[in-house]
Write a structure and sequence with these properties.
heterodimer; A: alpha+beta; 50% helix; B: alpha+beta; 5-stranded mixed β-barrel
């Protein structure tokens, strides 16, 4: 049967390359395995040659799959499910790449591609370690290649094929109009493609520039953790327990830097385009990638200890093996669908749970068995580290990171626990605090250790030497920390007082870490840039800690509700919690912090159901004014409702962050009406087009329960009653508040009549009442706004940390070269 | 025994203690009846929106007040009050996870997670819609 308008060639080529990549990676694994076994000589060389050809073939295949998939998406071939599901004609070119990583298949391909590239680098640089290390990587590539196969064995599907055709996907099985004569029993109609005009599009929340760059960097981080893992396995397997550590160090540093940057790019994306009001929510998906990173950091430090002193080799093995193992575990968590209820942004299951479990176990279990069975043979030093030595405290720091990681993953694994034991345990009431209350201690201890450990020498440190060096930075830190705590106004009051004190201590430790490490660049290594990688990275890390502590504990909600006040004011439900969202009626300024905020208008995206809302901020204390344009997708592609993207105003020391949390649920109509002013006394009537308004009373009140008002501030309430021609009557109670010499009018709305009334001024028992009739529904937006202080410290800290690690990495590569030459 | 081993054991003990105490703070998935029986205790109420009962939400009067009726799989109903804007996809959702506690009068909800029809069904619906638009052109 031939269907009209289909482009089948790309898909067929794609299938071919998927199979080729699978076969090539199997050949590469086997040949590298044989080469490792043969050790040296012509046999090993021949196997290695074959293995390299196979691996290069595989790289070409993966590139080809990638390009073909991109070709399909770029040309909008919606006969392919992947293109239909993840893209649309209106999607901008810059987001086309993001379509790749929206689906499981594309992100597996990305991961695979990074393995290929890392593999090619290893081929050139790994020397005698090439064969065993590449055996492990090629084997992992076999596993990943099966993930995109989409072949059935009986009823069991292995992998999910990105080149699946729509008509084979089962999506039409219940769609009569796609079948001949509209009859489901009949085959699919030959001209079915003419009914598919557009794709389902990329999830609007992913239509963000950070979504183009964050996944590739994060996946490079994920992929690179396999290199230290493979080196460790190779060491155990070849019983060359100590020789691999120098070669593995630059790779481990590389992985730590890229992985960390990848995670934080995700945090930035969350901050820029999600609306949970922050960059980190302890969501399982976030935790799943943080945990292997923490373990990897432990691994870097024990690896350094071993290279300098010969201690901690066993721990190094454990950390490097577990780093990649937890990458696999996180893959299982986020892609198998096991998180279900627990996470807002994991992949759906797609029925690949068993395969992902297998992928996890087939690599982790042999690795751990190998580690345990060779554990006794791994050399150790009998003599204990001295408490005054650098290695001792570095090791303690590594242990803290490791256990912090275990605690986080333990809590995150609640859904897995439920699945295994059939329990129904749900997350605690304050999920974020459950993490924060423990991790604050980690921040404190790591902060101190980061500050002092560099001042210790390997082996042992004379007390006098240590005290002399650390004296100055300690004094500077103490002064700086005192200033910050005195003037910083850190008063986080959502938890107990004890927690606030812990925050203060952690702030002090973070400041100490920054200053002590910055000072060490001069005191310890005399400002030599090439040697200062570690110190720079630690300064950055201290800034990250401080940025996290300040931005989280000093976060303020600016949009405390005042427009809902009339309801509170008249005591209908006095138990109200203060609302965190504020409704802005178009053209009517509202108070938000020191700003008068007005919703001035909106504009639509030319091609999409996406609106940009102009929110004008005008300061009452100075001349500052600016406009933020948060946007939202409304009823987008069948997703009824609102998907909001925030907008922020960046200052050096804080951000003002705002997003739309609700919109009128009607068709948008322009509102051109204005307020008409009427001077009336109590008992007088005001006529409007649909009836009459009567001013019933004017009363003056103090003690207004309005945020930001003093008890002495006076307010006037006007009671108005509106009678419409159809005899129904409605009450309205606008408010005029005089606070600090300023008059603020809080209008009231009679929705059924589309009437807004406000008090312009009051003079005894006479008032100037403004009446606005809107022939359409009112235009308004409901906003949430935050003030995030010192968030830039966090972002800057990330950049500095990564820079420091890269300087360190460059130095280690150079050192390795020098030893090789000599 | 080396110092480091002792410290390691202390960390292991501490981690186990932390995880056990975490298990004690966890909550439960509940129906209307069991949520009412656990008055004042934080639960995850599994229910859906009862569209036959009135829903109160007026963003102009108070954007932080949503009141509606939830019905669970046993057809028991409860009034829910939520001090935030109405969530996205609220009307579309086929299931709601309501996190909060019963306060004797109504279910005081702190957060609502909407569960939309499965992606698969959603895809079908979107496809039908776009096809209908095409055929009506």
């Amino acid at each position: 049967m031939k269907f009209f308008g289909e482009h089948l060639l790309p898909g067929q080529l794609g299938h071919f390359f998927i199979i080729l990549s699978l076969v090539a990676s199997i050949v590469a694994t086997y040949a590298y395995f044989k080469a490792t076994r043969a050790q040296m000589g012509p046999e090993a060389d021949n196997w290695k040659k074959l293995a390299r050809y196979a691996f290069i073939t595989e790289t070409i295949s993966v590139l080809a799959i990638f390009s073909i998939l991109f070709f399909i998406i770029y040309n909008h071939y919606f006969e392919y499910q992947y293109a239909w599901k993840h893209s649309s004609r209106s999607l901008e070119f810059k987001f086309l790449l993001a379509c790749f990583w929206e689906g499981q298949e594309g992100s597996f391909l990305l991961w695979s591609l990074w393995h290929c590239i890392l593999g090619l680098v290893l081929m050139r640089t790994a020397g005698k370690w090439e064969s065993p290390v590449m055996t492990i990587i090629s084997f992992t590539q076999v596993c990943i290649a099966t993930m995109v196969m989409g072949i059935y064995f009986g009823d069991f599907r292995v992998g999910s094929n990105p080149f699946l055709l729509m008509r084979d996907s089962g999506l039409y099985d219940n769609a009569p109009f796609m079948h001949i004569n509209g009859d489901l029993a009949q085959p699919i109609r030959l001209d079915y493609l003419s009914y598919i005009k557009d794709g389902n599009d990329l999830n609007p929340l992913l239509q963000n520039r950070w979504m183009v760059i964050h996944p590739p960097v994060l996946f490079l981080g994920f992929a690179s953790t396999i290199v230290p893992f493979a080196f460790a396995i190779a060491g155990l397997w070849q019983k060359k327990f100590t020789e691999w550590t120098k070669a593995a160090l630059p790779w481990t540093l590389f992985s730590t830097a890229i992985f960390g940057v990848g995670i934080m790019m995700g945090a930035w994306w969350a901050y820029e385009s999600l609306t949970f009001g922050g960059y980190w929510a302890w969501d399982p998906v976030e935790n799943a990638s943080l945990v292997p990173w923490l373990i990897l950091v432990s691994g870097v430090h024990t690896l350094l200890i071993f290279n300098h002193t010969g201690h901690s080799l066993r721990a190094t093995y454990l950390f490097l093996l577990l780093g990649f193992s937890f990458v696999l575990y996180s893959t299982y968590l986020t892609r198998s669908g096991v998180l279900g209820e627990a996470s807002v942004h994991s992949f759906t299951g797609d029925g690949m749970g068993y395969q992902l479990t297998f992928f996890l176990l087939v690599l982790v279990i042999p690795a751990l068995i190998l580690f345990i069975s060779r554990y006794k043979s791994i050399p150790t030093i009998k003599k204990e580290e001295q408490t005054s030595s650098r290695e001792f405290w570095m090791f303690i720091g590594s242990l803290i990171f490791f256990f912090a990681a275990l605690i986080i993953i333990g809590k995150t694994s609640l859904p897995v626990f439920n699945k295994i034991f059939g329990t129904q345990i749900a997350a605690p009431e304050d999920g974020e605090f459950a993490y924060n209350q423990i991790q604050i201690f980690v921040a404190i201890f790591i902060g101190i250790l980061t500050a002092v450990t560099q001042y210790l020498k390997y082996k042992s440190t004379p007390a006098k030497f240590f005290l002399k060096k650390i004296m100055v930075p300690t004094i500077i830190s103490a002064v700086a920390a005192t200033l910050v705590l005195t003037y910083g106004d850190i008063n986080y009051n959502r938890q107990s007082y004890g927690f606030l004190i812990q925050i203060w201590v952690a702030v002090v430790c973070a400041i100490y870490a920054i200053i002590a490490n910055a000072a060490y660049i001069w005191l310890g290594i005399k400002g030599k840039l090439a040697l200062s990688g570690g110190s720079i990275a630690h300064v950055g890390f201290g800034m990250v800690l401080l940025g996290i502590l300040l931005s989280s504990s000093k976060k303020e909600i600016m949009s405390y509700n005042t427009s809902g006040i009339p309801k509170d004011f008249f005591g209908k439900n006095s138990k109200e919690k203060p609302g965190e969202n504020l409704t802005l009626v178009k053209g009517m300024p509202m108070t938000m912090g020191k700003f008068d905020v007005t919703y001035t208008g909106d504009s639509a995206h030319p091609k999409k159901q996406q609106w940009y809302f102009n929110i004008h901020f005008k300061s009452r204390t100075d001349n500052e004014e600016f406009t933020l344009r948060p946007n939202a997708f409304v009823n987008y592609k069948g997703n009824e409702g609102l998907m909001a993207n925030p907008d922020s105003k960046h200052y050096p020391d804080h951000d003002i962050f705002t997003y739309v949390s609700a919109l009128p649920n009607k068709e948008k109509v322009l509102d051109t009406a204005t307020f008409a002013s009427h001077k009336v006394a109590v008992g007088d009537s005001i006529f409007y087009s649909q009836g009459v308004l009567i001013l019933e009373s004017l009363t003056s009140r103090s003690n207004l329960p309005v945020a930001g008002l003093n008890p002495g501030d006076q307010g006037t309430v006007a009671k108005l009653r509106a009678f419409s021609f159809n005899k129904s009557s409605y009450a309205a109670q606008p408010l005029l508040i005089s606070a600090g010499g300023q008059q603020v009018s809080l209008p009231d709305t009679i929705m059924p009549l589309s009437l807004i009334v406000k008090i312009n001024s009051v003079d005894g028992q006479t008032a100037d009442i403004g009446v606005k009739e809107s022939d359409a529904i009112l235009d308004f937006v409901t906003l949430k706004a935050y003030k995030f202080p010192f968030i830039n410290l966090l972002w800057l800290g990330i950049v500095i940390t990564a820079t420091g690690i890269f300087i360190s990495m460059a130095r280690r590569i150079k050192l390795n070269r020098l030893t090789k030459e000599s | 025994m080396k110092k480091i081993h002792i410290i390691g054991l202390v960390f292991i003990a501490a981690s186990i203690a932390v995880l056990i105490s975490f298990l004690q703070t966890t909550s439960t998935y509940d129906t209307v009846d069991t949520a009412i029986s656990k008055k004042g205790k934080f639960v995850h109420l599994m229910a859906r929106w009862d569209s036959t009962a009135p829903l109160q939400y007026d963003a102009i009067r108070d954007p932080n007040f949503l009141s509606f009726t939830a019905v669970d799989s046993l057809s028991k109903t409860i009034r829910v009050v939520y001090h935030n804007p109405k969530p996205e996809n609220f009307e579309m959702s086929e299931r709601l996870v309501l996190k909060g506690k019963f306060n004797g009068e109504f279910f005081d909800c702190e957060s609502i997670q909407t569960k939309c029809p499965s992606k698969y069904k959603e895809d079908q619906k979107v496809m039908e819609k776009s096809a209908q638009q095409t055929s009506s052109l």
